[in-house]
Amino acid sequence: MKNKWIIYVLALAVFLIGTIEYIITGVIEMIAADLSVSTSDVGLLVTVFALAAAIIAPILIAFTINMDRKKLLLSTLSVFIASNGLMLLDLSYETLLWVRIIQGASGGMATVVAMAVSTRLVKKERRGNAIGIILMGLSSSLVLGVPLGTFLSEMFGWRVLFVFIGLISILPLLIIYKKVPAIKEEEKVTLRMQLSILKNPAILTALLITLLYIGGYSTLFTYITPFLQATSSLTMTEISGVLFLAGICSFVGSKVGGQLADAKGSKFTICLGLLLQGATLLLFALAGVNLMVLILVLMIFMLATWSISPAQQLYLVTLAPRNPDIALSVNTSFIQFGFALGSGLGGLVISRTSVLYLNWLGFGAVSIALLLALLLFRRMSSRTENPMVTVE
Description:
Shape: globular
Helix content: over 70%
Number of helices: 16
Number of domains: 1
Distance between the termini: 30 Å
Largest sheet: none
Radius of gyration: 20 Å
Oligomer: single chain
């Protein structure tokens, strides 16, 4: 695949952005103790990042849609790097919330633009593969970023991690500056054109599925460290190891999900992933029975969740063949809404009851997502059989 190594550089940038977003989950108790706030308050640092990526990023992308993609990617990455440098300062909790908003907006924009750029650097029939590589960069942040960050934070402190990741981000920034060509839309894209896809009921339903299954995942995984501490006697170092295994499963899930979508179809892959995700959330109720059962359930949970993403992206592209980049952008926004919804509701559950009830909330969200998927696919199949009914 032509320009494949550049796409891997873009995936590296997305990996670093994903690490900054998810790293809170591994050091949530450490940050809470350092800032003298509750665990649910620290969970809000995840929520505001996701909300900024979900709301501010797509609005800015909409208004910069006709701007050179290379310049926009360089600008957003630069802001992202600078925001990580601020973490070295002894900032208050309230100020950190604003820094996380900046990180979410700039990181969210950079992720979407990187995905769009990757599709421009390959032939049309290879776009799915390019998207898959970018998504693997995102899932890799769970494989290496979160567990490694959790481990290193014990030695150097959580603030240093943000600065270190910011410095590493300079590398893809420089390569993008040197190697990525200027990329502009051949035809001017208006805001009305971007919003038109939201008039499609099938696309709206697919986006709602994204919101719910990511929300169900984030409800538990945002607070996975306190959940593991409450259901086992694992040390922080051992939890880092468990998170590393979970990250490997997310990486494998992304790859297998893409391959399964090609072999069996996106609909089959989405339904299978949602079914397994819901089943494992139910099985988390048995987490305190046996440590090996807990780890096995967590591994399957990660595999299932991350196998859905490439299939979901591919399905949305088929629903909006004339505006695939816009569909991907909106779906990325709903992914971030899902993270915000899950982490926010999870924090509410913890503050009112116990971390042990998080899996039930996640199960409810994923169950609704599976029901919507079955209804959507059945309706779309009936439309396909009727050539007079158009998808878009």
